[in-house]
Amino acid sequence: MPPMALALHDEGETTSELTSHGIEHNLPTASQPSIAELDASRLITTLTTQNRSVPKLGSKEIASQKIATDHMITARWTVESGWDAPELRPYGPLSLMPTASCLHYATECFEGMKLYRGFDGKLRLFRPELNCMRMLKSTTRIALPAFNPDELLKLVAKLCATDGAKWLPKERKGHFLYIRPTMIATDSALGVERPKEALLYVMLVFFPPMDNAARGIKLLASQDDMVRAWPGGFGYAKVGANYGPSLVAQGEARRMGYDQILWLFGPEGWVTEAGASNFFVVWRTKEGKLQLITSDLDEKIVLDGITRKSVLQLAAARLVPGYEGLEPLEIVERKFTMREVEEAIEEGRLVEAFASGTAWFIGAIGQVHFRGKDLKIPMGKKEGEMGAYTTLIKGWLRGIMWGEEEMKTHEWGFVVDEE
């Protein structure tokens, strides 16, 4: 006998809608009692008195991913009073009670962004408003407080403006700092319930570049005993619980010589994500039509990547009509299986494949190991070259992010006025 849907307070509500209604009710409305909202204009600034040195390019310090800049942004929230005035303060440890909710119930989420030092000397963010909006989706999915994404963007920009000149100086054109906005539940009650206290913080951290263009990224397709996300879950949100359980498989993949896991779902082997990046394929259908295909977002298994969205929008504007002699292609967002990819390779229909994300940026895929076979993915005509479509897309995005000539005034590039 199938489970019976139980009526809730509102007529028509059922238990199958608990999560979606819970998220909706977590968002602020005009009828709620007046509590303080996140407000960047209330920022309290305390500058550091410690002179810390900037690590050299290519150093072990940068490779460690442990070195942050001088300052961080913090903002405390409580259910009684809402958001305290945010602070820009010296970077340093946080104080948490051992019973803090985030340490026990994975009430933690984050974003991944980059601050770029453009070739024109300017500091830029790439579509940061989309990251701030996505973070709101993540916080409300795990019962953390809502906020105005515009205010978060102002705080991110303020931190970048404060530390950018020293830690990403003009002589480091073409380099970046990684931005990590994070929210954790700091409520010290050990009960399994909605947190009543939370902390938002933002930091800038050194990251090494991740570029496997010379040989292409090597992926290991996940096995039947490995699942990253599932329908009705939280795969679409950037929450810590999406990443910790994947580290065992990721570590094994790297031990075997692969860069990341290509996450498949279900007995059919639906393709979802390449590590923490979105996965794209350019192939020709059996009918001869050229397509750029990626997994859809309908089941909320796949992360709605900012780079993913940008790839699709640029391809729609520039590649669908055909570009400088390249054959026009069709853009398709749908479920597809690894068997379809394998068949396209065997029949010579697969043109190229790439992953997109903040960390990898645009990375050409050179190989996928699937069910005991190494499937070679075509790349460029010469050794070390990417495919033609991957090269174009990467070049356009790079131009926006780094302020290169053709794209330096593109609306997706958010210029930071450094202090």
UniProtKB/TrEMBL annotation:
One of its GO terms (biological process) is L-leucine biosynthetic process. Its EC number is 2.6.1.42. It catalyses: L-isoleucine + 2-oxoglutarate = (S)-3-methyl-2-oxopentanoate + L-glutamate; L-leucine + 2-oxoglutarate = 4-methyl-2-oxopentanoate + L-glutamate; L-valine + 2-oxoglutarate = 3-methyl-2-oxobutanoate + L-glutamate. Transmembrane segments: none annotated. It is an enzyme of class 2 (transferase). GO terms for molecular function: branched-chain-amino-acid transaminase activity. Its cofactor is pyridoxal 5'-phosphate. The modification N6-(pyridoxal phosphate)lysine is found at residue 238. Keywords: Amino-acid biosynthesis, Aminotransferase, Branched-chain amino acid biosynthesis, Pyridoxal phosphate, Transferase. This is Branched-chain-amino-acid aminotransferase. It comes from Amniculicola lignicola CBS 123094.
